[in-house]
Amino acid sequence: MSVVEIQRISSLSFVQRLRAHLALARLDRSIENLLVVPGIIIPLIAMPGRLDRQILVHLALAALAVTLVACSNCVLGELLDAPIDRLHPVKRNRPAASGLIVPWVAYTQWLAMMAAGVGIGLLVSPRFAITAIVLWVMGCIFNIPPVRTKDQPFLDVLTESTSNPLRVLLGWFAVTSVLVPPVSLLLCCWMISCYFVALKRFSKLSENMTSKIAGAYRGSLLHYTPEWLLASALFYSSAGMLFMGAFIMLYRVELILAFPLVALTMAVFCKLAFKANSGAQNPTKLSQEPLLVISATATVLVLGVLLFVRIPQLERLIKSPLPQSGTGATFSSFPGN
Description:
Elements: H1 3-10, H2 14-24, H3 36-46, H4 53-85, H5 103-124, H6 126-143, H7 155-161, H8 163-175, H9 183-208, H10 211-214, H11 226-251, H12 259-272, H13 290-306, H14 312-318
């Protein structure tokens, strides 16, 4: 630390320093932890009667544990990004970049929040605690050199997005450690998360016009072009829909009725990515986008209702069998068979 920074910190009151260290945790991003909810609801539906007092206690502990581990990752990111954040017209006002925190205290805060989160997670279940550790480790891989995938093209999107399927997994293990979630569900969450993150990168790159300027703030943007980011977003969305379809067909056909709303929400977000200074760049601004809020809310509500609804006629229609031998065309009669 420079002499100026030391003098500035020493001039702050205890309350000001405490607020600065709390701000490092980025509690405003805790909304992302709502992704544990699908992981909670699905096993509860699969195991009627599972919801009892013990599960409610586990869910409360799980919410606290996930928040602590996620905030620990945010503290690390703020600390390691401080030097480049000082070059940014907005990010330079963050606590670490503006010299409002004591580094060794912040690193202690980073480790303490992780230890507390994992410790509380052990009260839920060993699998929950292990998954919480994986979430924390992915934050280290994303932020800490020499790996620091945050600065590596495509790896930055893939690793940042792993936090969302891990949150689903944490929600699942908060309810049960006996069953494991369908892989199709986790892959769907991962790929759709990659779609949103890729468009976030595209929006930042487009607004800064050149990868050289944008790369001053995030190394991976030095290697991207708008075309590559849009192409990758198309890949992620296609893969996400494939795995969503696999999950729907295997476990809950009724969810297919919500697909148009899912597609609409993704389309609205894609449009936002072309808008300057939009919520596509900053998740905290998403609430300021009325059309996105409406489509996302409708999607969540419809998905939630369909999880509790059975429509046998729809299942028979969607899963109607192919013609068998003696009734016309069969697989064996198709070209190539």
